[in-house]
Amino acid sequence: MKLACSSMLVPSNSFREKLTLLERCGYEGVEIRLLESEATPERVAEIEGALAESPIRACALVFPGPAYQLTFDSEDAKRAKLANAKKALEIGARLGAPVFVTPEYQPRPLTLFYAPKPLDDLERESFSGFLGEIAEYAEKVSAIALLEPINRYETHFYYRLEDVMTVCDQVGSKRIKIVADFFHMNIEERDIAASIKKAAGYIYHVQLADSNRLLPGQGHTDFRPGFAALGQIGYDRYMALECRIPNDPERDLAQSVQYLRQCLEDSYVQTRALRS
User: What's the pLDDT at 113?
Assistant: First the structure.
């Protein structure tokens, strides 16, 4: 497994400088966060050129735009979200990065004692058609679309890995895969390691943040069982930081590499002990 970091966490407007800092800190990949409003041909060419000159690889593309905030409840919203996703898939294919496809991101009031309501039949039917079009376009441009289970306070679509596994099975496309985000899993999964093992073959990208959305090691999440589970299912792609950095970015990013590599080593020891 390789360590990566979201570009939004790295200070500098120059993408080349971001990659240089990440390399210096010990990262191998970058999760590109590119606002739709900033995705000019010149900006995309700058990113592409910087990647060509760096050992840092693009491991995913996050492409927020106005459509992210729209509720998935009308044909106009669906068309706007589809246009955003298609543009992202084109850029992702060009950069060699799988692309986040987010049907709806809306902070929601606390549910407290009650489980969130599942999608109704109309929402499921509309969303299934939307994903079918996403899968077709991803196939056309040779890209991978990523679906991320998001906790109940930030969406009403899907919360757990198995929810998205069901969606992937319904669409039936090898172009639709899953993001396993430790921050969201810490809220929604009963057993992170067990959920990861169950999702073997579906997980294509991993995001890291501690329980408080700070860097790993600055909250109470124990990453080692989840890392061990990822190793057991043969996951060998990137784990990317998507969190907040409260202090000095370069110092904290370098320290985070050390912490995560120790967690990985501990998980390997744990896995070897289980096998013996």
Answer: 77
The one-letter amino acid at 263: C
Q: For Cα atoms 188, 193, 197, give the angle at the middle one, nearest 5 degrees.
A: 105
Containing 62, the helix (H) or strand (E) segment is: strand 57-62
CA distance 32 to 95: 10
Region 6-13 average pLDDT: 94
Separation of alpha carbons 253 and 21, rounded Å: 9
pLDDT in tens, 211-221: 999 999 999 99
Q: What is the largest CA-CA distance in the chain?
A: 57
pLDDT of residue 39: 96
Asked whether the beta carbons of 267 and 228 are under 8 A apart, the reply is yes
Tokens describing residue 8: 């939004």
CA–CA separation, 156 and 189 (whole Å): 16
Burial class (CB in 10 A: 0-12, 13-18, 19+), 148: buried
| Domains in the chain: ranges and CATH | 2-108+116-275 (3.20.20.150)
200 token code pair? 């073997």
**Helix, strand, or coil (residue 275):** helix
More confident residue, 5 or 156: 5
For residue 255, give Cα distances in angstroms to 79, 216, 225.
43, 10, 21
Could you tell me whether strands 57-62 and 29-33 are parallel, antiparallel, or unpaired per DSSP bridges?
parallel
